[in-house]
Amino acid sequence: MSETARSSGRSRAKRLRWWNRGSGVRLRLWMAVNVVVLSLLSYGVYLLANSSSEPVYQGLGVPAAEPGLKDRLTSGTSTARSTVPQKASFTAPEGKYFGLSSTQIPWSSKKTDSLAKAAGQRPTMSEYFVNWNEDFDPDTVDASYRQGMLPVVSWQPWAGRKYGTNQPKYALAKIADGTYDAYVTRFAKTVAAHRWPVVIRFAHEMNGAWYPWSEQRSGNHKGDYVKAWRHVHDLFEQAGADNVIWLWSPNILRPVPEVSLAGLYPGDDYTDWVGTVGYAVHEKTAAAVFDPTMKKLRRLTDRPIVITEAGAQPGASKAAWITDFFKWLGKSEQDDVIGFIWFERDREQGGGADWRFTENAATLRAFRRGLAHIDLTGSADLSTSGTPTASGTATTG
């Protein structure tokens, strides 16, 4: 080889860069890049898991846009969070609440949107059930607020329906004597720490005999219910849970006319709202269902009234009853009725019958038209968003 060729080879060798110097260097570089990428991904997951749980709340009846990945990653430091509303902003609404109780609400925004389109109005309340073997779940409350709904927790002191109507483990006297203080206090402290207002409908339909917390079941005695309610309320006060709206809600008098509501009412110092549960079974009018109970409630207290479950049994007169319900609700005599919750469930979903307003085209049409004439609080009007269908959706065009 000539001297010129050797010199040229040495020059090329001198010009070799570090990335040409073997697989060891390249491997170390590749590993370093992977460490950086994995670190960034891990940090992102950490932020997602530990970001603020506060919902984006834009008002009653106004659903918030789902947060994107960037929003979630920056939520831990973002200053653009919702201001936690005060309890007082909900207790005396301008207009009436339109609430829904459905198996997928408030967890499924798709279900809420579907029923809102069917009804022609956005719901402003969501009602769901929590048993006494379950803790308070802030995420469910957040889901409700993100969809523009005030959460209503039906808090049931039992282990569930499958254990029957006699459950002495949850006897009212045990609640009052402190047996469940640890559970109630834990529940209350979580509610207080979360800060967002929540309605608690504790031990509803207590005047009936179909739940274990009836004074006729589980070894309970007359006077036990009020003692249990007041004790639970006092524990919440001690825990600082002043963001609770207390809702006392007996059943309508029709099946239990002999049971006195006065002996079951905890008193104005222990309640914010009162309510009732009522379904049309054979009645032709809403007045026949609700008026006898309303008279009793108004004699007891001047607290605002919420119909916490409403519905009508299937049949030829269901659509007509729904029409009459909204006419009754819109009368000046019902000005103290600040809202209603429709029990949008059939037998398979836990209803005693198919109470749904979406049962068929006639019931859906009657509900949509009737609701449009009610002065609602904060609810967005969707009455022109499409043509309702009996499946609970709306079609456009």
From TrEMBL:
One GO biological process this protein is involved in is: substituted mannan metabolic process
Return the protein name. Answer: GH26 domain-containing protein
Q: Which residues of this protein are catalytic?
A: 205 (proton donor), 309 (nucleophile)
Which keywords has UniProt assigned to this entry? Glycosidase, Hydrolase, Membrane, Transmembrane, Transmembrane helix
Q: Where are the transmembrane segments?
A: 27-49
The protein's matches in SUPFAM superfamilies, at most eight in alphabetical order, are given as: (Trans)glycosidases
Q: What is the lineage of its organism?
A: Bacteria, Bacillati, Actinomycetota, Actinomycetes, Kitasatosporales
Q: Which organism is it from?
A: Streptomyces fuscichromogenes
The record's similarity note reads:
Belongs to the glycosyl hydrolase 26 family.
